[in-house]
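quick q for whoever's on today - can somebody do inverse folding on this one?? i tried earlier but teh output was garbage lol. tokens:
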């Protein structure tokens, strides 16, 4: 099966404008993400897609394959869906452009889940830390006995009405999709659940698409702010083999 890792990136960011090009140990952040994606060996190809000429120019300069997307996409998945219209593959893995420390094994686990017949979409989870339960930025997921997602929420789920031992799961923001399901996604309107939680993966559940969940490992730090960029740079400085 032909497969592609797609890294969506854009200059516009409420908390950190221009963050894909912020320098980390002498390289732009998007290059670190790209090199991690390539190093995973999870798919046949790796692309960076962006509406911004600055990002595409820098990505081309370090040898990445690039795709120019429209500016008006409401979510990253809409950007991947546009990419899939141009670059044909059987499935695509969406690696976020602000994850320079993304775990290679997690990328591989998402991609390998498509070996299972009938899988249309995949994502990942890790165990939620106790202190993360009340944090709405830490998205929670509950799964069925077959490993598929039942629901994603910013609220701690399941609610602990009874004092039973439940392993709370934290969603890791990496996705895999078949070309078929990406083709349908833009035709669906944003539903009440997606709009309420501001979680685009709920659009798939609202429209009857099962999401296979695989266990992974979250990044030590994802970059949403300049302070987090400094944290990541400090970690990279302790990893000379990664430079």
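ok took a stab at it. sequence:
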């Amino acid at each position: 099966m032909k497969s592609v890792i797609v890294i969506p990136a854009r200059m516009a960011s409420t908390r950190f404008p221009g963050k894909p090009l912020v320098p980390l140990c002498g390289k732009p952040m998007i290059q670190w993400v790209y090199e991690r994606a390539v190093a995973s060996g999870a798919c046949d190809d790796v692309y960076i897609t962006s509406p911004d000429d600055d990002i595409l120019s820098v990505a081309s300069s370090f040898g990445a394959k690039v795709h120019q997307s429209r500016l008006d996409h409401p979510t990253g998945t809409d950007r991947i869906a546009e990419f899939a219209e141009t670059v044909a593959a059987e499935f695509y893995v969406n690696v976020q452009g602000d994850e320079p420390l993304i775990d290679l094994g997690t990328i591989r686990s998402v991609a390998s889940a498509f070996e299972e017949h009938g899988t249309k979409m995949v994502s990942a989870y890790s165990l939620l830390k106790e202190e993360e339960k009340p944090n709405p930025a830490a998205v929670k997921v509950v799964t069925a006995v077959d490993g598929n997602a039942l629901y994603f929420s910013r609220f701690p789920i399941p609610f602990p009405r009874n004092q039973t031992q439940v392993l709370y799961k934290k969603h890791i923001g990496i996705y895999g999709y078949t070309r078929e399901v990406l083709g349908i996604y833009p035709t669906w309107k944003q539903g009440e659940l997606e709009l309420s939680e501001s979680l685009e993966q709920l659009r798939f559940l609202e429209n009857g698409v099962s999401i296979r969940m695989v266990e992974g490992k979250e990044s030590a730090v994802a970059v949403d702010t300049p302070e987090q960029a400094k944290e990541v740079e400090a970690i990279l400085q302790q990893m000379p083999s990664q430079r």
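fwiw The chain has one domain: 3-242. also The mean pLDDT is 94. so keep that in mind when u check it
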